[in-house]
Design a protein that fits this description.
Helix content: 10-25%
Radius of gyration: 16 Å
Region (Disordered): 54-74
CATH superfamily: Nucleoside Triphosphate Pyrophosphohydrolase
Number of strands: 12
Order of helices and strands: HEEEEHEEEEHEEEHEH
GO molecular function: coenzyme A diphosphatase activity; metal ion binding
Organism: Nonomuraea jiangxiensis
Number of domains: 1
Keywords: Hydrolase, Magnesium, Manganese, Metal-binding
CATH class: Alpha Beta
CATH architecture: Alpha-Beta Complex
Strand content: 25-35%
Number of helices: 5
Largest sheet: 8 strands, mixed
CATH topology: Nucleoside Triphosphate Pyrophosphohydrolase
Shape: globular
Cofactor: Mn(2+); Mg(2+)
Structural class: alpha+beta
C-alpha cells in the first residue's frame, strides 16, 4: 500500500463534518459507499460510477459504489464491499479496507452514509454490472481530479454552491464531490484552483436531482 494513501486515510478520519451533513439524533437509513483507490496506468486513481438516469434517487449522478446497509450485512464495511461487487463486479478479495470516515447525512434521500476508504490491492476487471442502477464505471486518475482546469464551483438555483469536478465526460458534484474534495485536501493531494469559477447546474441535471420516486 502506498504511503500517500496511508497518510490520506489518517488525515481524512480527522476531517470535520460540515454542520449541514451531521446526522440527526434519530432516523435515516444506514448506508455506505466505497472509496476505492488503486494504481492504474495513469497513476493513482479512484473508482466512480455513473448512476442510471432511470434510478429513483440520485439519478444520473456520478458516485462512489455503495448503497443501503442490509440486515444481513455485518456493518458498513461489508455493505460497501457487497454493493461495489454488485454494481461494478469488483472482487472484494482484492480490496484492503483502511478505515471508515464519520457518518454523513443526506437529507434528500434520508441516508446516513459511512464512507469506507480502501486500497485496491489486486485490481479486477470492472463494468456496469447492474445496468438498472449503473450506466458506466470509471477508474478516474487523481491527477485529473486535482487538475485546476477540471475544478469548478457548481451553483444550485437556490444560490448554494459546492465543489465539482469535470472528468471523463462526467460532472461530479454534490455529496461525492464534497467527500472527494475533503479527502484529497486532507491527504495533501489537491492543487490550488480557482474557486471563483462558478457555473450553474445544467437544467437536465437539476430535473434528475429533484426526482424522488
Amino acid at each position: 500500500m502506498p504511503d500517500w494513501l496511508d497518510r490520506l486515510a489518517a488525515r481524512a478520519q480527522r476531517a470535520r463534518v460540515p454542520r449541514y451533513m451531521r446526522p440527526p439524533a434519530r432516523g435515516g437509513r444506514d448506508a455506505a459507499v466505497l472509496m476505492l483507490f488503486g494504481e492504474g496506468a495513469l497513476g493513482p486513481d479512484v473508482l466512480l460510477i455513473q448512476r442510471s438516469t432511470r434510478g429513483r434517487r440520485h439519478a444520473g449522478q456520478p458516485a462512489f459504489p455503495g448503497g443501503g446497509v442490509d440486515p444481513e450485512d455485518a456493518g458498513p464495511v461489508e455493505a460497501a464491499l457487497r454493493e461495489a461487487e454488485e454494481e461494478t463486479g469488483v472482487d472484494p478479495a482484492g480490496v484492503h479496507v483502511l478505515c471508515t470516515l464519520p457518518e454523513l447525512y443526506l437529507d434528500h434521500s434520508d441516508n446516513r452514509v459511512t464512507p469506507v476508504i480502501a486500497w485496491w490491492r489486486e485490481p479486477s476487471a470492472v463494468h456496469a454490472a447492474s445496468p438498472d442502477e449503473v450506466d458506466s464505471v470509471e477508474r478516474v486518475p487523481i491527477a485529473e481530479l486535482v487538475d485546476p482546469g477540471n475544478r469548478i464551483m457548481l451553483r444550485h438555483p437556490s444560490g448554494m454552491a459546492g465543489p465539482a469536478f469535470k472528468v471523463r465526460g462526467m460532472l461530479v458534484w454534490g455529496f461525492t464531490a464534497m467527500v472527494l474534495d475533503s479527502v484529497l485536501r486532507e491527504g495533501g493531494l489537491d492543487r490550488p484552483w480557482d474557486d471563483t469559477r462558478v457555473e450553474d447546474m445544467p437544467p437536465g441535471m437539476l430535473n434528475l436531482a429533484s426526482r424522488r420516486s
